[in-house]
Amino acid sequence: MSDPKIIVALDYADAEAALKLADQIDPDRARVKVGKELFTRSGPDVVKALIGRGFDVFLDLKYHDIPHTVGRACAAAADLGVWMLNVHTLGGAAMMQAARQAVGDSEDSPILIGVTLLTSMDQATFDQIGLSGSMTDTVVRLAQLAKNSGLDGVVCSAQEATPLRLALGADFQLITPGIRPAGSDRGDQHRTMTPKQALDAGSHFLVIGRPITAAADPMQALLEIESSLSNG
Fold it and tell me: Is residue 172 within 8 Å of 145, Cβ to Cβ?
């Protein structure tokens, strides 16, 4: 596939385990995500190793700090050659604009996206931390701020993809974790959809972890999910 829609979440504690899984996946059929634990333990070397294997890498570190610090961090990520990276939209417009300026806006620049509300967040947690309005309205508001600040898209729940698509247009990228094939365990995700439902709702890319990484045959699991996208 020239533009794979599935991003495999390499949520491992060390590079050895992450690369072992990556070696079972065709980089032409999926992209990969490196998150906080793996990057903290293994650093830039694991990103370079994955890129060397032909993978597009989504560096999922959710930068959230003062604008200067976030800009410098995003520039460092771009220098690694990552395909995509993210910041927290709650950092505000100035922070997101600093990130955009740092990574540039050429064809070779990484896709820069913002995190709205984590897919593990439910209504009780939303109320507990003092946010007002509905969760969907908050996500749309933060996504609009991200677009106005120059970001290419947002991480969001697939359940919010349709209102985001209507509000922000077809070109604004929607990256959705919390994707669970029919019949699989939801784990710690509260706002989930199947892969086909998520694409139909307007998602561009699907972040999928355990349904692939915990499978006896990860590549076969990936192919089955891929098939479900066209077969319904």
Answer: no
